[in-house]
Amino acid sequence: MAKKTREFIPNQVFVGIPWANVRKKYERTIDRLEKKYPLHFTIVGRDDGQDAQALFEIIKERIASSSTAVFDATGGNANVSLEYGYAEGIEVPRAIFLSAHKASTKSALSSPIISDLSGQRRIPYKTEKALLAALQKYCREHDYTKRFEQALSIALKGRATGSKKRGRALALKIVHTLDGKPRMRRAELVQNLQAKGYKEDEVDSPLKKLHSSGVVKRDVGRYSDARIA
Fold first, then answer.
1. In angstroms, rounded to a whole number, what is the distance separating the alpha carbons of residues 14 and 127?
2. Sorting pLDDT into bands at 50, 70 and 90, what band is 59?
3. Mean pLDDT confidence for 3-7
4. Check: CATH 3.40.50.450 for 9-141?
């Protein structure tokens, strides 16, 4: 029997983290990353309002719909180990990050959960600044980032520096407006960007170029949709 191909959103990255310890650190870091890179980092947490069983179903769906996944194994968190195991089972490309700070290392040694991931390659960091640097490298090496940068290089070729900067900012806004969505009405996408000060024709031109380069899919027709490709 042929193996079913997993369908996922190409720019989406699932983030599995210990909720109490490092969440704020990741949220601050992700805010900075999404201003520079076309990746959407998605975190599912217990404050979403679901019970434990419903929450895990959402987590499984979010992992399965992500192109890759990042897991922080600091403290040997049981939920992170479970999420990592699920991602491994459905063959989602994944990376493990681990705080090398002395206090974090001591707490990890007392936990049996961390041993579940001990045979896997880990990316250590000691400070939030080091975490940002490691995740920036992760972003640059991501397939979608590479395709996005190549598309921009073609779309903005020959423009003045100021025009390139504005064009890049708009392209990022187009992609991030589509974050986490299987598809969106083109009209809704345009309205979102008009609210940020862009005109419809100003949005449509780069949207067509991103479509031509294969990083965004834009259907034709009055009620056309757009999505990450």
1. 21
2. very high
3. 77
4. yes
